[in-house]
Structures are given as C-alpha cells and as structure tokens.
C-alpha cells in the first residue's frame, strides 16, 4: 500500500505545483491551503469549494494528520487542559489559561523531553519524537476555538511552555510559528508569542541570526553553575557563561528583553549568594525576571522557599532596576501547571 503523505508538510508552492502537475489550475492550491491552515480542517470532505473529483485525487496521495482531543479537564480556576492525540496515537498536553480578559495557549513542542530537569514531571517521560509543524499549529488553533467557545474571545498569547524543549525541535518550531503568524494561518502577531528554553546557547544565537520576532524566555533557576548543574544536569554541557553571551547576542540583535524564569527552593537557591548571582547575570543584558511558583511533582526533594526570601529576591532585583513579576500557578488541581504535564491520566 502506498504510504500517504501529510499534506501539510507541503508548502503553498509545492501544493500549487501538485495541482498543475495533475492538470488542475494552480489556484486550487491556494484554496486547499486555506482549508488546511486558516480553517484548520480535519478532512478533505470539508473542502466544499473543491470538487468531489478533486477531493478524491487528494485522498489518494495525502492524509490530514489533524490532532484530536482525547480528553479535556477543567480546573476550578477556568484553566482547561487538553490531552491531545497525535496521528500515531502518541499523546501530548496543551493548556488554555484564561487571565482576566485574555487567554494564553500553552503548547507542547515534543512528545516527552530529552532534558533532565529534576523538578519537572515531563522530564520523567523521555523524549519520543518531535512534534510536526502542523501538530504545533493545531494545538494553538484548537485552543483558539475553545477560547471563543468558552470565553467569547480568541487567544491573545501563546507560550511554548508545555512538554518538551522547543529549541531542540528548532526547524518544526519555526515552521509552526510561521503558520501561526501567517495570514494564511492564524495571523497572530509574533509579539504575542514566547518561546521558553532551558538555555541551548547555540540555538539562541541561531534565532538571533535569523532575526525572529517572537519573545524569548530562559528557564534559569540559578545563576550559579554548580547549583544549576545539580537541578538541571544537562546544563553541564551548556555553561552559564555561554548562555549569558548568547542572550546578550540575542538582545543586541533583536533589541528585545529576555525573561528569566526562576523558581526559588528551600536549601537550593534561597540565599544571598544566589540573589547576587542572579542580579549580576541580569545586568549583563536587558532582562526581566519571572518568579514562578513551584508546582509539586512526585519529587519531594524540592520544597518551595519561604515568602521572606522571595521578597528579598524581589527587593534586590527592583533595587537594581530589573523588572520582576511573580507568576501564580494556574490549573494545579488538574496537573496543568508549569512542570506538571506528564500524561498522568494515561499511565
Ligand atoms: N523546556 C522548556 C519549556 C518547558 S518548561 C524550558 O525549560 O523552558 C516551562 C517552564 O516550567 C520552565 O520555565 C520550567 O523550568 C518550568 N517548570 C518545570 N517544572 C516546574 C515545576 N514543577 N513547577 C513550576 N515550574 C516548573
């Protein structure tokens, strides 16, 4: 049996050429492309302005690997977590987070994760594969529909803070974002998109060289090498000095401010040595700090720091004119908060 191709792996140009090659007008390519991306359709039969005959031609060669929602969980705070089934039956999770009159979509970039952050539930899953651009796109378009349905508004922001390390799926991430921002897709502004990385320096430099327009967040958690290597062991391969330089390079090129994500734990980074290190790290290039509330996973080793020390972090950062915000967790009761995505229902 002929293996059918994922039709959304074709560019618009390739799609138009397919039609020309089969003796159909090239503009049919534009129409189909619009169905596939802008309308995010599930099947060829939805393409009502395409003749039945032509739909059959497409069915012979192609499939539409649209994601399917396997399960929806709703939190008391309005957060919605989707268990998303991929064409090969693998699962990832994505989250709709309503905040006042805005909605943020938190999406995954990989099935599992190859990194080993000790405090993150996803890291226990191991990386199985990268998500395709259309699977990244579908998570966003699905949450956009849910936002309209449940909250009467489209999504306002997208964060790549779900499962996986986005920069280790670089090509597909960029292609996915291209379709999210493209008028043929969702037409969202890249200013509303934030990619969060655990800090793969050479890919931060690559992004800067490619002059990407979305925002960058780096999960720092400690500006002291020894501590960081302990809680994020993979980072021993990516020294903090390289990360600092890469972020500076990115800021210089894009004229943007990086956000450092930072969790404070008891006995790990709750002392003045760590505060001072963070302040001097942040002073190296334009940055802001987002202090994240720690969400419990099955690892009891990590205990959130006392409020006093968080206040000290905030006052030292502010004293040094480094903007700082605190991110309260959302969707904790359904394991939808940062670091809790682990396909729990399915294990
Ligand atoms: N791999 C990427 C994106 C996924 S994690 C990254 O590391 O940035 C998204 C954010 O959740 C990161 O800042 C991560 O450090 C944070 N996180 C992981 N586990 C967490 C937990 N248990 N509680 C709170 N935040 C967590």
Q: Could you state the order of secondary-structure elements as H and E?
A: EHHHEEEEEEEHEHEHEHHEHEHE
- Output the CATH class name of the largest domain: Alpha Beta
Ligands in the structure? S-adenosyl-L-homocysteine
Portion in helices: 25-40%
What does this structure look like?
- This protein has 2 domains: 5-63, DNA polymerase, domain 1 (Orthogonal Bundle); 68-346, TIM Barrel.
- The protein is elongated.
- Helix content is 34%, strand content 18%.
- The mean pLDDT is 94.
- A hairpin with a 5-residue loop joins strand 4 (80-85) and strand 5 (91-99).
- The strands form 3 sheets. A 10-stranded mixed β-sheet has the order 3-4-5-6-9-10-11-12-13-14, with helices on one face.
- It is of the alpha/beta class and 347 residues long.
- The structure holds S-adenosyl-L-homocysteine.
- S-adenosyl-L-homocysteine is lined by residues 117, 119-120, 161, 165, 196-198, 219, 261, 263, 292, 294-295, 297, 338-339.
- Residues 117, 119-120, 161, 165, 196-198, 219, 261, 263, 292, 294-295, 297, 338-339 line the site of S-adenosyl-L-homocysteine.
Chart the SSEs and their pairings.
Layout: E1 5-6, H1 12-21, H2 27-38, H3 52-61, E2 62-63, E3 68-74, E4 80-85, E5 91-99, E6 102-106, E7 110-111, E8 129-130, H4 133-151, E9 157-160, H5 170-181, E10 193-197, H6 201-209, E11 215-219, H7 225-231, H8 240-254, E12 258-262, H9 272-283, E13 287-292, H10 307-319, E14 324-327
Parallel strand pairs: 1-2, 6-9, 9-10, 10-11, 11-12, 12-13, 13-14
Antiparallel strand pairs: 3-4, 4-5, 5-6, 7-8
The structure holds S-adenosyl-L-homocysteine.
